[in-house]
């Protein structure tokens, strides 16, 4: 049986696809067979971030409508044999996804995969609903900013009332906070919400903080999930997140501001 | 220089602390109405109209609370009647 993870947020553009790609790659690199699914039908992007856009033949909607087999639509990642991508359709609209169809695909994948990462579209409509419906775990991607925190809280309400686990009175979805685009120096100056501020409001299990980082854009330019850029701060932060999710106990990093040249010279570390 | 940074850090009216305060109020409110039936605001509005035919009450004199526990749902209606109710004409 696979564990189904939804990467969700409510608000758009906060880093869901970046996180989905990085986490899926991280899990696969740790030896777990992983599939990552793009639920953003009509606006697919995951294929670009994963660098497999030119190998898309069939997509999620083709599989649901019976036009292709799951095996034909899954794309094996070129960096890691244990990672597969199921792209979204570019031409169909979100009504092409049905709860029954999504449920069937997830069930089939569950037989063969250890983790299934669902990259949710923004919003709280059909695509986002279906992405979270079957989830066991939710990675709530949040930016330290008012509208993102508010939308995350709304999404938590939806996870705890509209999901399969809620409807069937099963153990509730495990919710984790992934705080992204964090700038410790702006937090220090008082013009960005701190991790603690966000935690005071959402009180979730903090999986990790991803700093605002140029490496994310470079990685997306190259079509390589940022976690493979092992020297980058964001890559390391995602690596920590995967390890913590898998049960490792790692101290949090990237919450304090980087020491400048003087800090390095005189501040010790 | 350090003094200045410390000032910003502890300044209670920094933009981040304003953001946090606004969020705490908003999120608390949104959580309290979550899961309530969607007809509640309309119900409240219509009740107010009916009552105002007879009693001169304030806009916010009515509160409608919806509560849900294991096996029943309760709708609690609270109307604050002024000391000296006059008929609204
Ligand atoms: N840690 C980060 N540092 C800098 N830029 C980032 C970071 N995380 C994400 N971004 C940038 O933010 C933008 C949005 O990221 P992404 O596409 O992952 O968000 P999304 O939540 O999937 O968006 P959508 O809601 O449209 O699906 C991208 O340009 C990405 O490069
Ligand atoms: Mg996205």
How would you describe the overall organization of this protein?
The complex is a heterodimer of chains A (269) and B (89). With 269 residues, chain A is α/β, with parallel strands linked by helices. Chain A has helices spanning 16-29, 46-50, 60-64, 70-73, 99-110, 126-133, 146-162, 164-167, 184-189, 195-202, 214-222, 233-245, 261-266, and strands at residues 3-8, 34-38, 75-76, 83-86, 115-119, 137-142, 174-182, 205-211. Helices cover 41% and strands 16% of the residues of chain A. Chain A has an eight-stranded mixed beta sheet, with helices on both faces. In chain A, a hairpin with a 6-residue loop joins strand 3 and strand 4 (83-86). Chain A is globular and about 55 Å long. The model of chain A has no long low-confidence stretch (mean pLDDT 93). Chain B has a single domain (20-88), classed as Cell division topological specificity factor MinE (Cell Cycle, Chain A). Chain B contains three helices and two strands, in the order H-H-H-E-E. The model of chain B has no long low-confidence stretch (mean pLDDT 79). The interface between A and B is medium-sized, with 19 and 19 residues. The structure holds adenosine-5'-triphosphate and magnesium ion. The site of magnesium ion (MG) has 5 residues of chain A, from helix 1.
Mean pLDDT of chain B: 79
Count of alpha and pi helical runs of chain B? 3
Mean pLDDT of chain A: 93
> Structural class of the helix and strand makeup of chain A?
alpha/beta
The share of residues in helices of chain A is 40-55%
Judging by the overall fold, what is the CATH architecture of chain B? 2-Layer Sandwich
State the low-pLDDT regions of chain A, or none.
none
CATH topology of chain B: Cell Cycle, Chain A
Protein traits:
heterodimer, A: 269 residues, 8 strands, 41% helix, B: 89 residues, two-stranded antiparallel sheet, 3 helices, 2 strands, binds adenosine-5'-triphosphate, binds magnesium ion
